[in-house]
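tool_call: predict_structure(chain=1)
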Amino acid sequence: MAGAYHHRPTAIAVLLALAVVAPVALARLWPATAAVLSAAAALSGLLVSYPVTAAGATALALLYGVTGRRRPLSTAGALVLPFAAYAAAPLSGDRPGGRPVALLLLAVAALATAAGAALRLRDERRRHRADEQSSAATLMEYAARGERARIARELHDVVAHHITMIALQAEAARLATPGLPPDGARRLTAIGDTARVALTEMRRLLGVLREDVDAEPTRRPQPGLRQLNALLDEVRDAAVGGGVRLIVSGSVEPLDPGVELTAYRIVQEALTNARRHAPGAAVDVELHYRGDDLSVRVYDNGPGPAPAGGHGHGLAGMRERAAMVGGQVSAGAAPGAGFLVEAVLPTGGGTP
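tool_result:
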């Protein structure tokens, strides 16, 4: 493994060869350290006129490893000097053919460095592509979860409301029609029962769809406060017993469509809850325009806070909608008796 310009004891040659090759054992954990140690040992051999022929291959392999594994090229650049010194050593002295050997070693060293850099760049591109794919998958997952939450909210706010109205209308027709034949009463009861089963199944579906993420806002025009009277008329037609009043105070003015939609949906959900949990109760819907915000209150004089037990999606949906326009919603027992839903919505804007 060793050769010499002059005869020297074989033990020195063996020790130098071991010093050049031994750092390879460190290359996996500390490639730069291994390369420096190997180059230093090779240069030591040159200084005592004992060049180790194995040093060339070993040093080039370590240089390739450092360049390929270290991110900045400057890390490998710190090793250029010892390797260049080793490769240029044949230029000094009277060794035959020194210049061609030096040029060959320098060329091979440059090739090893370039190959290592190419390896590093290839690995970086692969990691970059993997990161991009992972980021795209994450964004798609967030988008899908947001869309599921939006669908769940719209199903609850719109479809569930109308199914509830079907059940209430069927019950109202059965009770309000004197002398109804038994078969007709049975059919109306079946309609109400079927609507309630559909509501139960829809709640199960909503539990599957809903995720604890912010839903994407709807993009197309939706009902606003101008459609509130039509909603109240629909509820009045289905009501058995107590009526529904709309009380408006303050300076009425057009609001941001997102705020109006949020107020409409909150009233719609609160009315649905009142009819479901306090049938026959009187309901007051109050809108108070206060300049910087809109106060929405829906109060029923029913038995109290039964809604806490069975429709978390509705209350959660109201809070989500209010939060998306910078507002807040509270719901619970009203002072004295009944149930109160109260929302405060900034009139500055936002799009639910």
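agent: The first strand starts at residue 244 and ends at 250. Proceeding to next step.
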